[in-house]
Fold:
Amino acid sequence: MAELPNSLEEAIAQAKEATIAALNDGRTKLQVELVFPEIALQSQSIAEQFIPIFEQLGLQPKVFFSDTGAAALARRDWGEVPFKIDDVGTSRSPIERKIQPDDEAFLLVAPTSVEVAQVEKLSNLAGDRPFVLLNPQLEDIYVVGLGYTARQLRDRFLSTIESCYYIRPLNGAALLRVYPSLWQVWLEINDEYQLIAEEPQKPVGDNLDQILIKASSNSVTGEPTSPIKKPGFLTNLQRFLNALSR
Structure:
């Protein structure tokens, strides 16, 4: 059974293990999400830690960043590497040239809703080769100009992707998924995080609210919630995130 990590380091290790497990099970279209505001500034660093996943599986990855600037920065910071670093391109660029027949695997770093059309094309060109989205921002509802057609395209594309790792702190709670486990909802009760629900599908909106309200009510009335507890999750994790942003 998956447990909440106590640090960003533990979360990344969990995410790598979940990705390897999913790839070994034949799941090739994957996404990994660590949903913290500060994580957006660390995408390049986290991506570098994911490269060994492919090497461990005997694959040579091609790494895509959301734009030319991010790709150029990675080339500068990573120096000489045995794999190619590229950007996802634009709607006007010849996307077919981005993926070659001899490419073995693909890691897309922090693509946004603006690039969803290119990302879907890349996914289609990848076929059944490993295709991993790392911290995608495809569901960013605040992107200006994302019309109905673009939202439909995004939702259709996301329905083809397996969420093999997801972690998101909420207000006094947390949502976690570590492949192949179910989606877990954790709630802070008496300074400890307790597992209050496991769901086959990602709980969102009213469904998630009802789970949290019910568990919160049980904690007030003294009814049992779950014996599985994890102290100090957000405190320790926030300490790591603060250290990264210095």
Summary: The helical segments are 8-24, 43-56, 68-78, 116-126, 148-158, 205-221, 233-244. The CA atoms of residues 19 and 142 lie 28 Å apart. The chain is about 40% helix and 25% strand. Confidence is low (pLDDT under 50) at residues 240-246.
